[in-house]
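Feature request disguised as a bug: please show the residue count (186) next to Ribosome-recycling factor in the output. Example input:
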Amino acid sequence: MTIADIKKTAETKMTQSIDSFKGNLTKIRTGRANPALLDTIQVDYYGSPVPLSQVANLSLIDARTIGIQPWEKGMGAKIEKAIRESDLGLNPVSMGDLIRVPMPPMSEERRKELTKVVRHEGENAKIAVRNLRRDANEAVKRLVKDKEASEDDQKRSEADVQKTTDKFITEIDKLVAAKEQEILAV
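Example output, currently without the count:
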C-alpha cells in the first residue's frame, strides 16, 4: 500500500462518515415534516416486519403534514398502529385511503434538547473523522518503519491528511449549525 492509497482510503472513509452523519441528522425531528422521519418504522406485512417505504408511498402534503398512501387496502390500520407505537410521538389520522401524519409543534424546551442531540451527533462524527486521521498516520508510520517511505514523505502525508481532516470537520460544523438553525426556527 502506498501513501497515496492511504490518503485516498482515509478520504473515502471520511466521506462515508459525513454521509452517515447527514443520515442521522435527517432522522432528528424539526418543526417541519420530512418523510425521512418515518424511515425507521417497521410495518407488519404478512407476518414479517418491513420498512414503511416498502408498503406505502410517502409524500409531503404541506410543510407540517406527511401523507402516506398504502399500496394495499388492508395495510392502513397496520401502518397507523406502527406509527403510533413508534417513539416519534406522532398521531396519524386516516382519511379514506390516505393517512395524514401531522407534525405537532415543538416546545422551546424540546428544541433546546434537540440542539444538544445535534451537537452530540456532530461530536461523534468529528471523533470518527479524527480516528480515521490517526489510522492513516499510523499506516504511513508503518511504511516509514518498513523503509518503504521516507520521513519527509511521512511529514508531507501527515500535513495532507490534516488538511483533509480540517476540511471534513469544518463541513460537520456547518451541518450542525444549519440543523440547529432549522430546529430553532419557529
